[in-house]
Amino acid sequence: MKTIRTIAVLVGAAALVSACGGGSNDVGKELGLQNPLIHFVHAIPSGPTVDFLVNGSALQKNIAYKNVTNFANINTGATSVSYAPAGTTTALASGSFPNVAKGHEYTVIAVPSASGDDIGLIDDPFDKGLLSGSARVRGFNASLNASNLDLYLVPSNNTNISNASPTLAGVSYKNAVPASGQDSVYVSGGTYVLIATAAGSKTPIFQSNSFDLANNADWLVTSVPIGGVLTQLLPNQIHLLVAQGGNTSQPALELTNTLNGQ
Q: May I ask which residue range the UniProt record assigns to the signal sequence (predicted)?
């Protein structure tokens, strides 16, 4: 009888969240019942097409720059991840999650570096409230030529950041804000602009066109160097990519820098 009552409570919660704009997957994540989910973001502008490997085997294949793979189920426990040139298992870069857990989302990012390919790892505990319809946002810095960034998510009708605090402060190269293991930042849906500055500065180096951020969206905003020979890049020449979480594979949204037309 206890099992039946528990199932009834979960079904009722799923129905309530769905009515409020969420979904049963969110309920499973929040309650720690959903199998761990993982996806891959290719953030190397001049990088080759790659396969994404989990525990040495290809999970997703033929991933080009800006591509974001579907979330896929993986097992719990210690998990190694890497990416390799398409059709091979010779890793270009690798890393590991020591304790993959149910209800969490995991992101693996192909990151450019001056000495070769690198990797970024994010463990997202998905601590979203059952009744929340807010959008979730996290930043990641894949720009070796912009080692520390502040990111401002501001309403499109007020882009003056002189008295504003960064939405995501001090995003350092190869790191996320909030950090891996912490929950994302929650914001209301609306029409926004993203502005990037060097950490501690109020002088924009990147300002996007306006865009719509929907309620219940799940966004990873990643800075990437403007394409070219990485060792010859000028400081702060970046683009911003938006990897949108979900069940439909799609390229990351590449925002245009309105400050210089790039």
A: 1-21
If you average pLDDT over every residue of the chain, what do you get?
Answer: 85
DSSP string, 90-133: --SEEEEEEEE-TT-EEEEEEEEETTEEEEEEEEE-----TT--
Written as six digits, the tokens of 184 are 């994302």
CA distances from residue 73 to 76, 104, 106, 155 in whole angstroms, order as listed: 10, 11, 10, 35
How do residues 76-113 score in pLDDT, each as one tens digit?
999 999 999 999 999 999 999 999 999 999 999 999 98
From residue 168, how far is each of 25, 105, 137, 187, 237 by CA, in Å?
A: 26, 20, 9, 12, 19
pLDDT score, position 114: 82
What domains can you pick out in the chain, each with its CATH number? 35-255 (2.60.40.1120)
The alpha-carbon radius of gyration of the chain (Å, integer) is 19
User: Shortest CA distance to 136 belongs to which of 125, 147, 146?
Assistant: 125
| Residue 241 to residue 239: CA distance in whole angstroms | 7
| 52 neighbors 60 (Cβ within 8 angstroms) | yes
Given the structure tokens 């020979």, which residue do they identify? Answer: 229
